[in-house]
Specification:
Shape: globular
Pfam family, one: Acetyltransf_9
CATH class of the largest domain: Alpha Beta
Number of helices: 7
Structural class: alpha+beta
Number of strands: 13
Protein name: N-acetyltransferase domain-containing protein
Order of helices and strands: EHHEEEHEHEEHEHEEEHEE
CATH superfamily of the largest domain: Gcn5-related N-acetyltransferase (GNAT)
Number of domains: 2
Organism: Butyricicoccus faecihominis
Length: about 270
């Protein structure tokens, strides 16, 4: 049987969506949202057995600041193999092909966020090493001062971008206006929204919130966190902040870099 790798075409959509649903079942509406707003054939690398789709990866384009310079990277997302065709090396071949395409395009690295802890070991033989770290914790309702945030909108994108560039490590995934607007729309539609705190008209902290967690929390102190709990009407909230405690993502460098750590989050993860 002839095997081949190629990027998706319009006619592949039913098979792509079926494989996605098989590997990433969803009850919260994310899959519908992803395919309506983020999916593009030109970023979807397929592996076919004859005419049967058996595995695929998304090669999403991003830029990362490396050594103070903006460089192109590929974010590997939605890597999946049909359960009936696993342990045949298809994912390995897809990843190796993605690396070839990266090098041809002079992209500096391939990055991804393993969905489960054991996958860090799966990706290691391909050259991926833990590189992007975060800190996770929980906040609980207490007595004392509280500062309520306000809901952020697309008008706040410049302030969000400025605070992100100020607070996160220098080696980071870059975020342009389209990125910020897409994330705001995602969290407004499927999550609990995006909230921010201001001082003298300047954004000092923000939180991208799902119902039970703040996926990215920057610049908030105790009073702000209590105010966020009030707004969300919760007694407890899991939060993810900048830190070095937990590996979130991995990086495979195609060109040697002196960077030892970086930051990424809000990557549809």
């Amino acid at each position: 049987m002839i095997e081949m790798m190629r990027f998706a075409e319009k006619g592949d959509f039913p098979a792509v969506r079926t494989l996605w649903e098989t590997c990433f079942p969803d009850e919260g509406g994310f899959n519908d949202y992803f395919f309506a707003h983020f999916y593009k054939e030109k970023y979807t690398l397929l592996y076919l057995e004859g005419e049967t789709l058996v595995a695929m990866v998304q090669m999403l384009p991003y830029r990362m600041t490396v050594g103070g310079v903006s460089r192109e990277v590929t974010y590997i997302y939605g890597a999946c193999t049909d359960p009936a065709h696993r342990r045949k090396g298809y994912m390995a071949r897809l990843l190796e092909r993605s690396f070839e395409l990266d090098r041809q395009a002079e992209r500096v690295a391939s990055v991804l966020i393993p969905a489960e802890k054991w996958l860090f070991d799966f990706y290691k033989p391909f050259g991926y090493e833990p590189f992007f770290h975060i800190s996770r914790g929980e906040i609980t309702r207490t007595a004392g001062e509280r500062e309520a945030p306000r809901r952020l909108t697309s008008a706040d994108v410049p302030a969000l971008a400025a605070l992100y560039d100020k607070l996160v490590p220098k080696c980071r995934i870059e975020r342009d206006t389209a990125y910020w607007n897409a994330q705001l729309a995602l969290f407004d539609t499927l999550g609990a929204g995006v909230y921010g705190w201001f001082k003298d008209g300047t954004l000092t902290g923000y939180a991208f919130c799902w119902e039970d967690n703040a996926q990215e929390l920057l610049g908030a102190g105790d009073a702000q966190l209590q105010g966020l709990l009030d707004v969300l009407r919760r007694d407890m909230l899991a939060v993810t902040e900048i830190g070095a405690e937990t590996a979130l993502g991995v990086c495979k460098w195609h060109n040697k870099a002196d960077e030892t750590a970086g930051y990424m989050n809000l990557m549809l993860n």
